[in-house]
Amino acid sequence: MSNLRFKAVEEAFKKKAVAVSAPAPLTSEYYGKYVFNKEQMAKYLSKETLKTLTGVIEKGETLNRELANHVAAGMKMWALERGATHYTHWFQPLTEGTAEKHDSFIEYEGAPGSPIVEEFSGKLLAQQEPDASSFPSGGIRNTFEARGYTAWDPSSPAFIVDDTLCIPTVFISYTGEALDYKTPLLKSLNAVDKAATEVCQYFDPSVKKVFSYLGWEQEYFLVDEGLYATRPDLVLTGRTLMGHESAKNQQLEDHYFGSIPTRVQAYMKDLEFEGYKYGIPLKTRHNEVAPNQFELAPIFGETNLSIDQNLLIMSLMKKVARRHGFRLLLHEKPFAGINGSGKHNNWSLGTDTGVGLLTPGKTPEENLQFITFIVNILLAVYKNNALLKASIMTAQNAHRLGANEAPPAIISVFLGTQISSILDKLEASSSEDAIIMDPKQGMKLGIAKIPEVLLDNTDRNRTSPFAFTGNRFEFRAVGSSANCASAMIALNSIVAAQLVEFKQTVDAKIAEGSTKDKAIFDVLKKYIKESKPIRFDGNGYSDEWKAEAVKRGLDTETSVPVIYDAYTQPESIKLFEGIKVFSERELHARNEVKWETYTKKIQIEARVLGDLVMNHIIPVATRYQSTLLDNVYKIYQVYDKDKAAKLSAHDTGSIEEISERISIIKSKTEELVEARKVANKIDDERAKAIAYHDKVVPYFDEIRYHIDKLELIVDNELWTLPKYRELLFVR
Ligand code: ADP
Ligand code: MG
User: Fold this and answer.
1) What is the tens place of the pLDDT at every residue in 272-288?
2) Backbone dihedral region for residue 253 (phi beyond 0: left; psi -120 to 50: alpha; all else: beta)
3) Element holding 159 (H helix, E strand)
4) Which ligand gives the minimal distance to the CA of 297?
5) Among the atoms of ligand 1, which is closest to the Cα of residue 471?
6) What is the pTM of this model?
7) In this predicted model, what pLDDT tens digit does every residue of 446-476 receive, in sequence order?
8) Ion ligand 2 residue ranges (Cβ < 5 Å)
9) Do the beta carbons of residue 86 and residue 164 sit within 8 Å?
10) Which of 215, 491, 713, 728 lies in the 20 to 30 Å Cα band around 500?
11) Where are the alpha helices (DSSP H) in 535-692?
12) Which atom of ligand 1 is nearest the CA belonging to 300?
């Protein structure tokens, strides 16, 4: 008997690499072709308009109607020449991903029925009112209340996808609360700019602005689309809810940096071609550790733009995958037993004078500045380790965190031996020693002698969720499907708040008569002591570390819904309100959304699991059991009782095992349905999410265990769901 699974495998094997969608010219010739960037603006806007707009962008001001009209006119001309017929405000609701509602440029020239013209006014560019009632708001905007609106973020350039001009926007309720990620992100970038600039001015008064930089590394899986289509769990939840480990998976580590499979290589090339058109500076592509897992990374850029580019590339990745007969899996843990996917967020700060604040400097002043930022970041991460964890936590990412292959569920910082020893020396020194700064000899303590290239690959700790890697921190706990903004809002905010506090403390000491350098050293020394518990250079996956982290008072909570509480602790509310990133009301509302989303994800998975158990697993296992019974029956027809018992022993063993497993699967599935019903009656979103976490989730692994055992005994020909060895190795 042949089933869909075999057909899909056969088809997948036959697939060949397809040509890239267009012959590839020199990248620089078409790079950014579909982006209304500075060069295009210079062509399509008057000098006057461009100058005012640049000012608005740099100062983060809102634009007035007249300017908006001028920009819109230029943008329209640019877009029409490139074949755009529609426009949309492109925003980032809390559902993750992006949202858009397309409108055509057409309008009647005059009264209805008069000739059609293409229209795009400043009003349409600057602001729109999408019917926002279906986006999560955590109760801020009831559906019958005032609607939300989107407003252009001029710091991120517009671009054209297919026939549509996309305008990056914020999404806000009429009462002013953020309903998206971009709004608080821009506020946090502003906060860190302000706070860091003030601190920089201790060292270099010419610094006027500090930028936050982000370089993401996006991991993903590709699965043949035919195989994908025959796995309802992948289609509906993005992950496999069952599937026995393949005999070979990643043990040999032969996939990582191995040669890229041809069909995948064609996909990557095509994807890069698309990405370059949007000015996304894709730089690196390679295989990842797990079979069929890959990664791509761009050259880092300003955080706001880099996040928009990540969201755009995620949607391009999906589209291009389909052209190549693949489906893209961005889920954090599509397959059990092998690595999941993350999105390392490489983050740093840099000044408008071109100095990387996390790059060891060439002069003593620059190095004192470098140490100042490192130490403040350490303390910020220490004080807010629970919050940082909350910023990356989702139902999907929970599968990765705490597993032995990805950042643990405890946030710690890895500094490496060189920086660690500098901090240790600094801590042990008297400030009189430390502040002798001779431009020729450098400071004592060797601070001036930190080599520029700090760490080689051997000094890299792969188990650390927050690691210093020479000129940046790598926040590795971020999930592959996440909007990086969540992590970047938290990180930039805690660092901003910490820098504000640092400045106040240092200024107070100066006011009391301390010299500036001594004041800075004294405060840093205190911070180094205080932040010690967050520093950990050992194996983040070990059990000893878990025990040690508890002793150090770090957050070790593993329940997703409870982890979100970190956002609404009094310290967090004070922090976010203090730097004007979130109001208390927004923080509560956003947690409501998180709890609701968590519950829904688990709910969907539970339903899919129930359906698969009843319609796939049990019928198939029963059919095989009946074949075995048939065989036993026939043996007894042919042989005498004793001989028959011997000959059929193997079959009867399997028959009984199948019966037992089916009955456990059935009863556990019934219990799961019951647990869900109980949870569904709870009104409070937090309590409901906790019920789902505590009472529903544990059934998944239990049920799966028996299904996976059945997969091993049931006749391969009867099994309808593609197995791991097919999903992961056929390409
Ligand atoms: P890895 O060695 O961790 O695999 P890469 O060397 O490819 O990764 O770099 C990862 C990302 O870090 C890239 O996007 C790169 O541009 C980015 N990156 C490099 N330096 C910085 C920096 N100073 N600030 C932010 N991101 C950076
Ligand atoms: Mg990295």
Assistant:
1) 999 999 999 999 988 88
2) left
3) strand 159-161
4) 1
5) 23
6) 0.94
7) 454 444 444 444 456 778 899 999 899 999 9
8) 344
9) yes
10) 215
11) 543-552, 560-563, 570-578, 584-612, 618-638, 641-680, 685-691
12) 16
